[in-house]
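Re: the 499-residue chain
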Amino acid sequence: MEENRELMAEATQEELNELLQIRRDKLTALREAGMDPFEQVRFDRTSNSQEILNNFEQMENQEVTIAGRIMSKRDMGKASFSHIQDQQGKIQIYVKIDEVGAEQYEWFKKLDIGDIIGVKGIVFRTRRGEISVQVKEYTLLSKSLLPLPEKYHGLKDVDTRYRQRYVDLIVNPEVRETFIKRSKAITAIRSYFDNLGYLEVDTPVLNTVQGGATARPFVTHHNALDMDLYLRIATELYLKRCIIGGFDRVYEIGRLFRNEGMDTTHNPEFTTIEFYEAYTDVNGMMERTEGMMKYVCEKVNGSLELPFGDVVIDFSQPFRRATMVELVKEHCGVDFDVITDLEGAIAVAKEHKIKVEKKHKWGDIVALFFEEYCEGKLVQPTFVLEHPVDISPLAKRDPQRKHMTQRFELFINGKEYANAFSELNDPIDQRERFENQMKLRALGDLEASEMDDDYLTAMEYGMPPTGGCGIGIDRFVMLLTGNTSIRDVLLFPTMKPLD
């Protein structure tokens, strides 16, 4: 059996090598005939496939100029049918020897699947009813030297699809649709915040201090300054500097980088939006977050009901609001409004087989219970409120419950989609929290924040009451498109080299 597999692999490679040589021989013949397909520098189009298909009644018998990749060919003797594919879709073309001439028709028959051509012709409907373009003349714009995957089996290997996304986009139309939706979603996000008077800004990607989130950074070295720099793990602290400087509403859409594990919802580089608004709080951020998600969902999918696997996420209803402590009590019966000391929290954690580390404080244990018992059960959109101060170094304390912060995380279908605070604007409190983070670093926690003295200086000039929120755009696009892996919504996800 193993021997047979090896023989088949050898035969397949032999066949591939033969196909590659045939295509290169065709290229040589074209060049010798003075028709180098790579010399063409421009081709002006008047239409695309979808415009013709959608507006046939108005365009019938009109001349159009289109271009695309040959995806199928059917030779009928003195006439041939092909389908060419552009960004919008596919359309059939009909090539007759009487229209293009004998020499050009012979060259057309030698074209390969994957070749890119430009076509001028007349829109018509075939006897079988398919809207098509009858070719008057064509131009070979690029020669494909590698064969596309066989059409009935396509490109199915997941690893190959991610490594060769360019082929994935050619042969799998649903993949193209995912990235079209991604682009529409980002456009809609911008539109939502622009319409509310937010200012889009750009902040540094290279940071001298690790801060703004709890994560391990990538470190690089700047030769001229002879110093290490971090690829940013968050945009938060620079955006809050903008608020201090007098901009009332700011946002940034950009890449973040975290040196962490990879799974279906994590990639080392990813895209987020962070937005900050002066003179509001965590409640204002909930309004903005819910409003934005509903707006984008409607714009991208045309509905507020979002099928995802076996469930339908209902964005038409108000998002649920519940505190972390309430949800823990609801799902496992442990009441951290009663168990308010570290010893009691450690004891109840042992009862429930929750692993507690030496560095963990009361708030960390509450969060561990939430992760274990609650996260996966939050299917419909739920704002999880009141996170402990111990796990929220940049959030403002709740005036009524000093051990809690004015913070929420938004959960949908068991995953976190947003993280927001009433931002801490007390520079003395902020310094103390940075100092606590530095203690964690000293204990070996490489995800803890460093002391950002410049940010503290900025705060000392006075920061207005502010609400801020961060949302993972990749994860949101996964929800909008029904994808279960972050790699399916990143054009070129991080991959380990084959060699």
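The chain has two domains: 20-148, 171-319+380-488.
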